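Preliminary data (for renewal application), iron/sulfur cluster complex.
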Amino acid sequence: DSTRRWLFADQLGPHFLDAPDQPVLLIESKAVFRRRRFHRQKAHLVLSALRHRAAELGDQAEFRQTETYAEAARGSLSVCHPTSRAARALVHRLGAEVLDPRGFVTSPRDFTAWANGRQDLRMEDFYRDARRRHDVLMDGGDPAGGTWNLDAQNRERPPRGAEGLGAATPPEITEDDIDEQVRADLDRWERDDGIEFVGRDGPRWFPATRAEALARLRHFVEHRLAPFGPHEDAMLAGDPVMAHSMLSAPLNLGLLDPREVIDRVEDAYRSGAVPLNSAEGYIRQILGWRDFVWHLYWYFAPSYRSSNALAARGRMPKWFADLDADAVQARCIADVLRGVRDRGWVHHIPRLMVLGNYAMQRGWRPGAVADWFHRCFVDGYEWVMTANVVGMSQFADAGRMSTKPYASGGAYINRMSDYCGGCRYDPKVRVGANACPYTAGYWAFLSRNEPHLRSNHRMRQPMQGLRRLTDVDAVVEQEEARGSHAP
Ligand code: SF4
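Predicted structure:
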């Protein structure tokens, strides 16, 4: 059989091949970078990973560097289900044989069987179903430890007065000749081809090979998983990584199979090396959230991406779009934006509660916010960001995937971080020169969206709070005056 396996740049692990010696086609398309302005370090990571895989496979692979995929995708090809609608349409058009998706634990059949006939699609229900179906953290028919959800143990504040969590530092990445070539090529594309990137270049921070990814996985499970759980929602200005695994990028490049990650985490719990709340909290992110948003991407119609239930029509301002952290005085957002600018990565709480929360409060167009997250984060893909941003973070889907908007004022950020102490604003103040943009923004958001939110029973308390506010007009006026200026 002369059929070759076409591997996209997010299908780089051994589990995308049927046999270790199967002939492979890899294509590096430059046109991808002309269409969108990606983070420079994301472009570097993806190209480095693809080229490392080509080098590893040697003669087994044909590696083509072209303008478009179509130029190089010739002959009889099979491909594991691609991860975007555009890529799927392309492989169909080119006549490749499309196999079932790989790189996720649950299958589309699992998901459809679970979703059909349900009014509300909730991650928690999907996750429990997946744990049963795939026997993950189960003791017979019951969840390990007798409980499905240990979130309540995983919301600890950061340690007071500490600069960092003190978790062991992940193994460093050593760049090689391939990285040097990638960097030179990207410099040249910027200089000669008018291709633009966002964010700063910097040493590669994320795995580009399976060996690097496995080293990070091993180290995480041995040294960082235990403290991960309790502190997974906390933020410290001096410790952007805390005990997070940073495995989302290698997982989404296909370098790691989520099932192997889950099995190692469960083994660590079974051997007594890590507590259940840490193992469960981590597995919930992979088997729960990651698989869930993957399926939602395909399950919802393409128009889901332009959902806009809160009628948010504001434009994302340039300082935010360009990651201009130096233009910002609010300490939390300046620090988080700096993290995105310098690394293309911050963990899930700054994404949701600092960046996403700010965008939703200001009413920026949800599709544009999703696109920004997709382009600016090393682990961002259309399938990842659509439900995560449009649904969860911006609540633009009228509650199809979450029960209430993740809107919060400065009090949340103050509780879960050390940002507010050194900030020129005060999280308790909502009007005046010291008014925290999150606190003021929160009330202005509730006020503006009252008609959309008043029938949501989970929003009853905040809406009652809003009605009791005597200065709401002043807050709204002040936030309108702030407009798109950097806080
Ligand atoms: Fe952020 Fe407000 Fe705290 Fe400043 S006071 S760090 S703006 S939450």
